[in-house]
Give the backbone structure.
Amino acid sequence: MEYNKVMYGGLRAISERRVIRSGIKPNHIGFEYLTDCVTVKALFPDMPLTAIYTRVGELRGVSKTTVSDGIYYAICHSARFRENLEQKEHITLLDCDVYAGFVISRFAIEARREYFEEDFKAE
């Protein structure tokens, strides 16, 4: 199974909403990278993070480092990002706990759950 933004548009839309709800604005550098990474992780939960960065980088025509740096920028420059996560997850986080892998994994779990629940409801 290959990630295709058109084929999995519904899952990508769910991922995008999740990223926006966290406080990251669509005009932030890294917003699209994070959304794509969340979608790929939701589709392939066992895929390593570096492979996800590589795949998204290939789709976007950039390096995996650019993907990683863009996500880091989006997370670090979003107002109240950590607080939004804490409120949503009902947990307490230190700044060092909020890194790309954690964010991608948490958002992917939610996106996957919502996407596949909608699929099952449609049957």
